[in-house]
C-alpha cells in the first residue's frame, strides 16, 4: 500500500477445465499444513514485473504485443516445493524448452522496450498451490496434465481482505 501503480506480472492463465485439473492434483491442506492458493488465483508465471504505473503498463502491453510465438503444449508432471519460502507447486514442465523460450523472449523485449530488469535466477516454471507450507513434500510425480498454450496474459495482483486476488488485464495470442 502507498506505492503508486498496480502490481503486475505476465502469466499463463488456465481456463476452467485446466483449473480443475490443477486442483485435482493439489494435496489437501492437512497434508502440507500451508495456505492453499484460491482456485481462481492459480496460474503459471512467465515474467514477474512488480509495481507499474499507467504509463509503464502501456509500455508493457505494447511490448508484449511484439512477442511472436506458435501455439505449443507442455505437461506438468510433478509436485515439488521451494522449502525456503514454503511454496508447494505443481511443475516439472515437459518439454520445458518452448515455455522457457516464451518467457525468455518476453523478458528480452520488456528489457529492451521498457527497461525491465531481467530475472537473474534460472526460470523455474511452476503453479504455486500453497504457501507457508509446513511439511514440504518430496518431489512426487502426478498424472501428467497437458497445458495447451495459445495465449499469455498480463495479470494484476489486487489486495483484498483475504489476500491477493489476480485479475487478467490483457491477453496476447499465439500466431497461427
Ligand atoms: P510464486 O508463486 O512462486 O511466489 C505473483 O506474485 C506471481 O509472480 C507468483 O506466481 C510469484 O511466484 C511470481 N513471482 C516471481 N518472482 C516474484 C517476485 N520477485 N516477487 C513476487 N512474486 C514473484
TrEMBL record:
Any GO MF annotation of the entry: 2',3'-cyclic-nucleotide 3'-phosphodiesterase activity
Annotated organism of origin: Ectothiorhodospira mobilis
InterPro entries: Cyclic_Pdiesterase (IPR009097), RNA_CPDase (IPR004175)
Function comment: Hydrolyzes RNA 2',3'-cyclic phosphodiester to an RNA 2'-phosphomonoester.
Domain of life: Bacteria
SUPFAM superfamilies the record matches: LigT-like
Record: active site: 43 (proton donor), 126 (proton acceptor)
Protein name: RNA 2',3'-cyclic phosphodiesterase
Position of sequence motif HXTX 2: 126-129
Keywords: Hydrolase, Ligase
Enzyme Commission identifier(s): 3.1.4.58
Similarity section: Belongs to the 2H phosphoesterase superfamily. ThpR family.
Catalytic activity, as annotated: a 3'-end 2',3'-cyclophospho-ribonucleotide-RNA + H2O = a 3'-end 2'-phospho-ribonucleotide-RNA + H(+)
One Pfam family matching this protein: 2_5_RNA_ligase2
Renumbered ranges of motif HXTX 1: 43-46
